[in-house]
Amino acid sequence: MNESLRGQPRLLLAVNGLFVLSGALAGTFLNVYLWKSRQDYIMIGWFTVAQQIALGLSFWLGGKWVKEFNKMNALRLGIAVSGLFYLLVLWLESRVVDYVWPLGVLLGVALGLFWLAFNIVFFETTDPGNRNAFNGWVGLLGSLAGIVGPWLSGWLISSMNGNRGYRVVFIISLCIYGVAAVLSFFLKKRKTPGEYQWLEPWHELHSEDRDWRVMGAGLVFQGLREGVFSFLIGLLVYIASKEESKLGQFTLITSAVSLVCYWAAGKWLKPKYRSAGMFWGSLLLVAVIFPLLWKVNYGTLLIMGIGTSLFIPLYMLPMVSSSFDLMGESKESAGMRVELIVLRELCLMTGRLAGTFIFIGVLSASAAPRTVTLLMLGLGVAPLGSWLCLRRMLRKNIVPER
């Protein structure tokens, strides 16, 4: 591991890795669990809407707690509420589809609190010199979790009768959340100066300095794609194969590819290459969807999944690193890091909600497989919108290499 990532950055990576592993174990099959109870795209769409609204509001409302009080308690509460969510899913069993709104809100609150605190600590423990490397390791650990978690879950669910496998998977996930919570107590608390400015995100978008307005637009385009793709791909794999083990196998293969690519991108995608990397990554993310126009089956979905894993680091690393570099551009912006992270999440939330509302609207009219494919292609071009917004900023704000 990079020498610059020792100490607190490494511990933060461990907490993140465990949180992501737990989510990969249970979350990969969560939408399949809902689908098996009621085969309804729209219901899953509303579950996602509830999550995103709660996640965005948790960032905005939780910002005051994180800035003025104890951000580590917010991180731990996020882990605890994630555990509570899966306890309720276990208790409700097949009745879970009757409570998609409250459950979606609960999961959104859990994710919002965890990722708000994580992003603040991430900013505080990294700098422009090691940020790409840290993001590369985040992607690499996420890929490792994606290899181990879904494969193990798929095997357990397929080898056990009824919903017993799901119960075992959710219980294992709860235990991992517990380990992550314990590790979080070793992270050092840092005081963030100043009072929380509730309207700072709004002021940044309307300031004379256009950088955050441009960045916000790029983040909205990012959210347009990921809001739908985050739940639809896994669901389509299950629908095409009718086997949880196939979904586990799909995630294992694509995550293995992603692991190598995130490592390579974190090592070699230097700041001066961000614009070109983001352009080609965005273009190729569109290209890999085209096999689905021929036929939607496990094979074509796997081609798309492998292609996405190959090229998404080229898109995601510049998106993440450039937004955090913008936060650290000056002493004043660094002092507003909580508000700027809230702004970043609200822009992503806007894009995710817009994409999901488009999904719900289109599939309310027609849920034919061809419609789903064309919708994916339409939303899949959104990363090119991010690049168009940020291309000048990526060329201008080149961070000196260390």
From TrEMBL:
Primary localization class, coarse: membrane
The keyword Oxidoreductase appears for this protein: no
Pfam families: MFS_1 (PF07690)
Keyword entries, A-Z: Membrane, Transmembrane, Transmembrane helix
Endpoints of the signal sequence: none
Transmembrane domains' residue ranges: 12-35, 41-62, 74-93, 99-122, 134-153, 165-187, 223-241, 247-265, 277-294, 300-320, 341-365, 371-390
One term under GO cellular component: plasma membrane
Subcellular location: Cell membrane
Record membrane topology: Multi-pass membrane protein
GO MF, one annotated term: transmembrane transporter activity
The protein's name: Permease of the major facilitator superfamily protein
Species of provenance: Paenibacillus sabinae T27
Lineage: Bacteria, Bacillati, Bacillota, Bacilli, Bacillales
